[in-house]
Amino acid sequence: MFATVKLGKKNGELAKKLFEIRSVTLLAKKNYSQQVNVDEFFKFYSDKVYHDDRYKPLNGKDYDRFISMRSARREPAVTRQITSLSYKVGKQMISLAEGMPNENVFPFKRLLLDSSCGDPLELEGKELAAALQYLPSQGLPSLLTELRKFQDDLHRPPQLPRDILVTNGSQHGIYQCVELLVDPGDPVITTEFAYTGIHSTLKPYQPEIIGIPEDEDGLIPETLDSVLGERLRLGLKMPKVLYIIPTGSNPSGTVLPEARRRQIYELSCKYDFLILEDDPYMFLNYTDTQVPSFLSMDTHGRVIRLDSVSKVVSAGLRGAWVTAPIPLLERLELHMQAELLHSCTLSQTILLQVLSSRSSLARHLIGARQFYLKRRDALNSALEPISDLAPYSVPKAGLFFWIRVNGVSDVFNMVFHTALQQGLMLVPGQAFLFDSSSPCQHVRLTFSRVRFEDMETAVRRLADLIRNEQQIKKKMYANDG
Ligand SMILES: Cc1ncc(COP(=O)(O)O)c(C=O)c1O
């Protein structure tokens, strides 16, 4: 399933390992009473096999049409290729080639990182030196092996040549993918309100944003179909990529149900676009349904998946990875060579430690979900009494409430002037629009860090602000009238 980029074809040993199925089973507490099975917890695929013969899977040269002009001009850095080679050749090789520093000048002696998630990480001598040295651009080889297995176990992606690149956070992956796929002026599909980081990355490309509305189950496939059908009929330029957060959309908190994911996947084949699946909230799904990922459905080589441990393990670690068809991943790696050389080696070493005990990780993730769920529920209880002023749907996943403020057509003034004066920080909805100067009725509230005891006060202040803003608007209309 996963072939290494450098080898370009499957390595028998590795492939064998990848198909091993883990039998670790852990019983842990969920909602303080239910029991959770680790294999089920880490299951993001369907047992049912789907294949749509109407469309041909993409391969090799097919990807050329998706690659931006800028990315197509990238060429391999010879010294980076030598670094990769140096990780593969035997010890008998005398190297006068590498530009690596000598580890003996590194001043560090020992690193001990104790953790509630698995064994402590203890590094000394050669191991510590290796964790502080340059790497091949794709990532730490042992981490890549673990990640290939992780993706295979969690998503069981259909067998197509794909591989992984370790990035410096998912935002970095977004940036790389935009550079890979988007030429100035290209159309890009997103949800109507989308994560700020995709917009800020896209801005300099002056794309045409095709913003598809969501309901409480996320992006509406029928609308996407009719919008794209109409574009085709009118002979307009068609988008090469859809950016989507399938679980815990930021800001809307929706979880796309499996049926919608399958419909959207089929549309990607019908209208020939790629799906950029950004899924940092996958472990913060508060519903009882674990939904198969787009990667798990990717029979036709159309999914680029972004994973990140920022929300559940550590944000500052910048632990993230891209899983993509090999022709695309090769381009991303060239970008990495030029941009960063590689993601931080020490972070990758820590990430490897975190991922390598699946049962400890499951226990930690279940705890993290429970932790956030309590906060979601507490903020929900605080917000319920003002739901006539600010209606909302309870977020099904992720970290955000997305509320619509009644009687206030634009919340900008309220958020940036009155709310701040009243000691309340909020995010105005326009932060999630490509054109952030547009008026917007929505506000995003985050429940991840606010103290329980501050929630009711925060909501009381919010309610006062909304009433105040509604009065101002009323007076303005009365004066205009
Ligand atoms: C949807 C989404 N994608 C990506 C990111 C960035 O994640 P990372 O810390 O891995 O760069 C965020 C952070 O808020 C996010 O909400």
What does this 3D model show about the protein?
Its cofactor is pyridoxal 5'-phosphate. Homodimer. Residues 132-462 form the Aminotransferase class I/classII large domain. One of its GO terms (molecular function) is kynurenine-oxoglutarate transaminase activity. Belongs to the class-I pyridoxal-phosphate-dependent aminotransferase family. The protein is of the alpha+beta class and 481 residues long. 38% of the residues lie in helices and 14% in strands. It contains 15 helices and 16 strands. It has helices at residues 12-18, 38-41, 69-72, 78-86, 125-131, 141-155, 170-181, 196-202, 221-234, 258-270, 326-339, 345-356, 358-383, 412-421, 452-480, and strands spanning 28-30, 34-36, 110-113, 121-124, 162-168, 187-191, 208-212, 214-215, 218-219, 241-244, 274-278, 303-308, 319-325, 400-404, 427-428, 442-446. The strands form six sheets. It has a five-stranded mixed β-sheet with strand order 5-13-12-11-10, with helices on both faces. Helix 6 (141-155) crosses helix 12 (345-356), helix 7 (170-181) runs parallel beside helix 8 and helix 13 packs across helix 15 (452-480). The longest helix has 29 residues, at 452-480. The radius of gyration is 24 Å and the shape is globular. The protein binds pyridoxal-5'-phosphate. Pyridoxal-5'-phosphate (PLP) binds at residues 169-171, 195, 197, 245, 250, 278, 280, 308, 310, 315, 320. Residues 169-171, 195, 197, 245, 250, 278, 280, 308, 310, 315, 320 line the site of pyridoxal-5'-phosphate.
